[in-house]
Write a structure and sequence with these properties.
The complex is a heterotrimer.
Chain A: H1 4-17, E1 22-32, E2 35-46, E3 50-54, H2 61-68, E4 76-81, E5 84-85, H3 91-96, E6 99-102, H4 114-119, H5 130-141, H6 159-172, E7 177-181, H7 189-204, E8 208-213, H8 216-222, E9 225-230, E10 233-239, H9 244-252, E11 269-280, E12 283-293, E13 297-302, H10 308-314, E14 321-328, E15 331-332, H11 338-343, E16 346-349, H12 353-356, H13 364-371, H14 381-394, H15 410-419, E17 427-431, H16 439-454, E18 458-462, H17 466-472, E19 475-480, E20 483-489, H18 495-502
Parallel strand pairs in A: 3-8, 3-9, 6-7, 7-8, 13-18, 13-19, 16-17, 17-18
Antiparallel strand pairs in A: 1-2, 1-4, 4-5, 9-10, 11-12, 11-14, 14-15, 19-20
Helix pairs in contact in A: 5-6, 9-18, 13-14, 15-16
Chain B: H1 3-30, H2 35-47, H3 49-75, H4 83-100, H5 105-134, H6 138-158, H7 192-211, H8 213-223, H9 225-230, H10 235-262, H11 273-283, H12 288-312, H13 318-346
Helix pairs in contact in B: 1-13, 2-3, 2-12, 3-7, 3-10, 3-11, 3-12, 4-5, 4-6, 4-10, 5-6, 5-10, 7-8, 7-12, 8-10, 11-12, 11-13, 12-13
Chain C: H1 19-29, H2 32-57, H3 65-83, H4 86-109, H5 115-133, H6 159-163, H7 168-186, H8 188-198, H9 200-205, H10 210-236, H11 248-258, H12 263-283, H13 288-293, H14 298-310, H15 312-320, H16 322-328
């Protein structure tokens, strides 16, 4: 009887030898409540292909890949490899069927050793043979030039090395299809180049590599073919290289360039950053210098995780500045506490409405009390209810004064959050102010924000919606990899140009 | 709300109670006792005559005080398992005052109560600082501090405060008359001061959570610390505040035990009212208005079953068994109902 | 009570005894007999702590140990008494521990309830149940685990007398330490056990049935906690009376943390506690105050261990010398106390 590892070795060999293999996804459908995350997705991928899956956040890419790797069940549709339908009811069966997934944050076990991570979940004898495991690890790693210390705990590996470990492990288990979900977030440029080399090598050996990303530039660099998704649907499939503007258009849809906006004279600076460096987790946003005038609207464009959120955090005292200075309305605020920023007229609206804004279980009235400026010890409930009802009417929130926050729809949650803002702000910072809202709510939100602007409040907002960025901003800062790639005038920029910049490319 | 869901909600409330009664009946039948007679005896054991009622109320006082304190910490999202230790420290501090402070009742009793409150607060703040500064989970930090406090009580009883010539765990010398809570009946420990404090605690906590900005902010901290922080609430300070207030109430409970019930320091000065208080608050679903009746039910069950023990030779732990099963069933029933609602929402 | 002249008096906790009395009592601690009884006394604690270690390694907290041990001690003795068979007593006790653990797993996995809340309620309920149901066994003399000195080994001077002059319940606790260690660190199943507690979504991605395994290990750990109860009432302090195993469960919880979720370090913690008990017993006549306080030392040690693991300097030290980190204390399994739902 062959030993487990030799069995695996032969399986790996057949995976790489077989010819004319192709992966077919047929009419995959998946709903989460009212959200149609995957709407009848059909994709065919030939063997030995580096296939890109491109789309903005929320386009449905991750759902599709989770279906493919057995993490979640599809509602309907089939997946065929080599003409054979695959059982993808759990990760276990998916791996057995030859589909391996590398998650964005590699799912390694940090306190466990490299070899334990390699062996976890593998079939075999009851007792672990770590020596053999280490030998197998070395054998599979060698062609790629990876070098692991099998006894080191995984926490000592860089994110790039953790990915390498996962790739090697999936190969060892006989993966014929390798899915990589946004693998370049959180790794360095050198690691990225190494990763791409590895992926090309795998494709050359006949594997199917699916590269999921929202980074245009990377897909163009790496892939031979690309499928673009938007709002749960496949928009199109193209061979690469192709003109980037086509991809941008497919990703974001037609961008209608904004109509004329009322000009408001900008006053003295509300926010000044001088050579500010911020650090949050692994992300370093270095050497920011910027001045935002009163009544100015600044849009922050860029892929998720490029530094916009850290930038907003830095402007509210949530992320401490390592160096440089921050001035709000002429007052030095460097290294001050978040509540000092609040007192000085800075207000922050993060993206997670129920996670970082409202409190589940508390009513609308209670939220108004918490946000209000009446700090007297006893709560005057009658007055609070009256004020709350006035606000509910004035901001047309669909809900009652006693409705708990979680019972409101997303649009009404955002209305509540806007209604909770104190008057007379110097600076308003927002993350995705209209994400997930219908057009009516989104328009209403912007009416409110622009009314603030007329009062002299400077607005800084991050958004993934190019239309929104171009329509409402005066200036747009494009973030890429933790720095401001470029600052553009929103009036003289097209959606196409912005799309290029977001992908990390300077338009010609 | 449709009538169907309201019926389901009633079902979820009634079913655990009915089930608990069934379990009680079965347990009584197993013990060879007549259930109806037993229930009657239990009521008698708790409430017949002023003497029984008085003792029941004096046991109710520390439980209500502890539960009132726990309402505050639970609303702040904290599992204050350290409450036993806070009661013990209250008892120790009150005993110290009762032993050391001279003068009339008007001086000693308030001094002992204040000392108890401070002792409890100090012990609670220790758990709070471990949590907010050193990231030690309040459950394990509190559990550890419970045992440290219990050891301290034993040590004092056997060591420095031991009775003249005898080192026994039965307790210190009795406090002098002036250092005890004034009573209103002959041969009965019922004290208006104790009752007044318990009622005041319930009213205080009710209005603190219902009518004050502090209470509202505390709820926000407990339910979503991140949102609360972004709303400008200093979350760590509020957690410490919750610990301190709970500690004060627990400390007063300990002082009641020392100067109003045992009249001395004993190793088991907490009477287990801290842990029992957690059950009371779980059954009262964290609502201040409910703790007084729920606590009375718990105490009545436990004192009632003492009489059962005497008359029918049914072990007095029966009361604890019934209340424990009731709390367990209510919690499980709540989880079951939520699961059904979620399934319905997804379908 | 000893009386002493003022100049001979010790300070602090040493209450009214002389140094010579102290040394005499201290010498008593290290006799073969008392070290042997230390090993025996640690038996129940080892079953409980290793059982809870397995449960917590799988990412579930069984907070009910205090109640589980109490109720299973009662059940174990009661059953053995009724059928006059020690083995059946042990099995009944294990079943009680397993049943309580199963309830916690069910409430956490199926009903998504707080493990702490359910565990806590079960603690108090099980204590009262043991009291209520055990009433009829109080004061009864029943069967006990028969002594069985291991031939040859027990004749070795010192070591043999301390380690091998006991009975199967005690030897079982030795075996358990080794088996648990080998299982967790040497087998595929043990590796997956660590995985589901450390990063359940990672284990799930590798094809491990996370919740099924959590049920299994929670129930297995609970059964061992039940065995701890029987080992107490059928071997340690024979028979049953109300509150017989008082505080044993809480101490076991503290030792699991102090031992850093590692079966061998946890066992060492249990032996240390047994040692403290022997010291307390021997010093009892001389220093009653001190000996009452000694058995609660695991708790401040647990707090210290928890404080230390989270300090920055300890993290830096641990990163520089990974071996050192293992000796002092360890991180809890990352996924502990958090329910896992694939979607």
């Amino acid at each position: 009887m062959p030993s487990p590892s030799s069995r695996l070795r032969s399986r790996l060999a057949t995976a790489l030898d077989s010819s004319d293999m192709s992966l077919l996804l047929e009419n995959i459908d998946k709903r989460f409540g009212e959200v149609h995350a995957n709407n009848s997705i059909t994709i065919e991928i030939e063997e030995g292909t580096l296939h890109g899956l491109l789309g903005e956040n929320g386009a449905g890419k991750s759902t599709l890949m989770k279906v493919l790797s057995g993490f979640i069940d599809r509602d309907s549709g089939r997946v065929l490899l080599d003409g054979k339908e695959l059982d993808l009811s759990s990760p276990k069966t998916a791996i057995r069927a030859g589909v391996g997934m590398l998650h964005q944050d590699p799912l390694v076990f940090l306190p466990l050793s490299v070899v334990d991570n390699f062996l976890m979940g593998s079939p075999g004898d009851r007792f672990l043979d770590r020596a053999e495991g280490a030998a197998e690890l070395r054998r599979i790693s060698e062609p790629f030039g990876f070098n692991f210390n099998p006894d080191a705990p995984a926490r000592t590996l860089t994110v790039g090395e953790r990915q390498q470990l996962e790739i090697v492990r999936l190969l060892w288990l006989g993966a014929k299809v390798l899915i990589l979900d946004e693998p370049t977030t959180g790794i360095s440029e050198i690691q990225r180049v190494d990763l791409f080399a590895t992926l090309r090598q795998l494709a050359a050996q006949g594997m199917i590599v699916i590269f999921v990303s929202h980074k245009l530039e990377e897909v163009e660099e790496l892939c031979q073919r690309v499928t673009v998704m938007r709002q749960g649907k496949v928009i199109g499939e193209l061979d690469l290289p192709t003109p980037a503007e086509r991809l941008v258009e497919m990703m974001f849809g037609q961008v209608i360039v904004a109509s004329d906006r009322p000009q408001i004279a900008h006053g003295e600076p509300s926010l000044v950053l001088e050579a500010t460096t911020l650090k949050e987790g692994n992300l370093m946003v270095a050497d920011l210098s910027l001045s935002v005038a009163k009544s100015e609207v600044i849009g922050l464009a860029g892929l998720e995780g490029s530094g916009q959120r850290t930038f907003l955090g830095g402007c509210t005292g949530l992320v401490p500045a390592l160096s440089g200075t921050i001035t709000i309305g002429g007052k030095p605020m460097t290294k001050r506490h978040y509540r000092d920023f609040m007192r000085h007229g800075v207000h922050y609206l993060p993206a997670g409405r129920l996670e970082e804004g409202l409190v589940e279980g508390l009513s609308i009235t209670e939220h108004f009390i918490l946000a209000g400026d009446d700090k007297s010890f006893f709560v005057d409930w009658d007055a609070a209810r009256e004020g709350s009802e006035k606000n509910i009417e004035h901001f047309s929130i669909k809900g009652f004064h006693h409705s708990p926050a979680e019972s409101l729809s997303g649009g009404n949650q955002q209305r509540l959050l806007l209604a909770m803002m104190p008057p007379g702000l110097k600076l308003l910072l927002m993350e995705h102010p209209t994400r997930g809202l219908d057009i009516e709510s989104a328009d209403w939100v912007w009416t409110q924000i622009l009314a603030r602007r007329e009062e002299g409040t400077a607005i800084v907002f991050a958004s993934a919606d190019l239309d929104e960025l171009l329509r409402y901003s005066d200036r747009i800062l494009v973030f890429f990899n933790g720095r401001i790639l470029k600052e553009v005038d929103a009036r003289s920029t097209t959606g196409e140009q912005l799309g290029y910049l977001i992908g990390g490319k300077e338009p010609e | 709300m449709t009538s169907q869901t309201s019926a389901a909600r009633w079902g979820a409330t009634i079913a655990p109670i009915a089930l608990a009664v069934v379990v009680a009946v079965v347990l009584l039948l197993l013990a060879g006792a007549n259930p109806l007679e037993s229930f009657k005896l239990m009521g008698e054991g708790a409430f017949s005559g002023w003497s029984k009622t008085g003792e029941t109320l004096m046991a109710w006082v520390p439980l209500v005080l502890a539960a009132a304190g726990l309402i505050i910490t639970f609303n702040a999202g904290l599992w204050n398992i350290g409450i036993e230790g806070q009661i013990i420290l209250g008892g120790i501090a009150a005993s110290w005052a009762a032993r050391e402070v001279g003068g009339s009742s008007w001086v000693v009793v308030p001094a002992a109560i204040i000392a108890g409150a401070l002792g409890g607060m100090l012990w609670a703040l220790l758990a709070g600082v471990l949590k907010t500064r050193f990231r030690v989970n309040e459950i394990f930090g509190g559990l550890g501090l419970d045992f440290v406090a219990a050891s301290l009580a034993v040590y004092l009883v056997i060591g420095p405060w031991s009775r003249q010539g005898v080192a026994s765990t039965s307790g210190t010398d009795l406090f002098r008359e002036e250092a005890r809570l004034p009573t209103i009946l002959e041969n009965n420990r019922l004290s208006l001061v104790a009752l007044g404090l318990a009622v005041a605690a319930v009213v205080f906590v009710f209005y603190l959570m219902k009518g004050t900005l502090f209470g509202l902010r505390l709820k926000a901290v407990g339910r979503n610390p991140r949102s609360a922080f972004l709303l400008g609430i200093p979350t760590s300070r509020y957690m410490l505040g919750a610990f301190a207030l709970c500690g004060i109430l627990a400390g007063i409970a300990g002082s009641m035990q020392a100067i109003g019930f045992h009249f001395k320091l004993i190793p088991a000065i907490s009477g287990g009212y801290g842990f029992l208080g957690i059950l009371v608050v779980l059954l009262a679903a964290f609502r201040a208005a409910w703790i007084a009746p729920v606590a009375l039910f718990f105490i009545a069950m436990s004192r009632g079953s003492t009489l059962l023990d005497l008359r029918l030779d049914v072990d007095s732990a029966l009361g604890g068994v019934i209340t424990g099963i009731l709390v367990l069933l209510v919690i499980l029933g709540g989880g079951w109902q939520l699961r059904r609602l979620k399934r319905k929402a997804l379908a | 009570m000893a009386t002493a002249t003022t100049e001979e008096k010790g300070t602090g906790l040493i209450l009214g005894a002389t140094w010579s009395e102290f040394w005499a009592a201290w010498g008593d601690v290290f006799t073969v007999a008392s070290l042997g009884s230390m090993v025996a006394a640690s038996g129940p604690l080892i079953y409980a702590t290793v059982g809870e270690t397995i449960t917590e390694k799988a990412g579930v907290i069984n907070l009910s140990l205090e109640g589980s041990i109490m109720l299973s001690a009662m059940t174990g003795f009661g059953t053995a008494f009724l059928v006059n068979n020690v083995l059946i007593g042990f099995l009944a006790a294990a079943a009680v521990g397993a049943a309580i653990a199963a309830l916690i797993a069910f409430a956490s996995i199926e009903l998504r309830l707080d493990q702490i809340a359910v565990g806590f309620v079960l603690t108090l309920l099980a204590v009262d149940l043991s009291d209520y149901l055990g009433n009829r066994f109080v004061g009864e003399a029943g069967p006990a685990v028969p002594a069985w000195p291991i031939p040859v080994l027990s004749d070795i001077p010192w070591v043999g007398e301390i380690l091998f002059d006991h009975n199967l319940a005690v030897y079982g606790s030795f075996v358990l330490i080794g088996v648990a260690y080998i299982f967790i660190y040497r087998t595929r199943g043990g590796l997956e056990l660590q995985g589901i507690g450390e990063r359940p979504e990672g284990a799930f991605a590798r094809g491990v049935a996370v919740n099924k395994m959590r049920y299994f290990y929670t129930i297995l750990g609970g059964a061992l906690v039940g065995v701890a109860g029987a080992a107490f009432s059928l071997d340690q302090k024979l028979g049953w009376r109300e509150g017989s195993t008082r505080n044993l469960g809480w101490i076991a919880l503290a030792i699991v943390i102090f031992g850093g979720w590692h079966p061998i370090r946890v066992a060492i913690g249990a032996f240390l506690f047994g040692f403290l008990q022997v010291v307390a017993l021997k010093l009892q006549p001389v220093f009653p105050g001190l000996s009452q306080v000694l058995p609660s030392i695991p708790f401040p040690m647990m707090i210290l261990a928890l404080v230390v693991v989270y300090t920055d300097w300890f993290r830096r030290l641990g990163d520089r010398y990974p071996r050192l980190r293992g000796i002092l204390a360890a991180d809890p399994p990352s996924g502990i106390g958090v329910a896992f739902h694939p979607e």
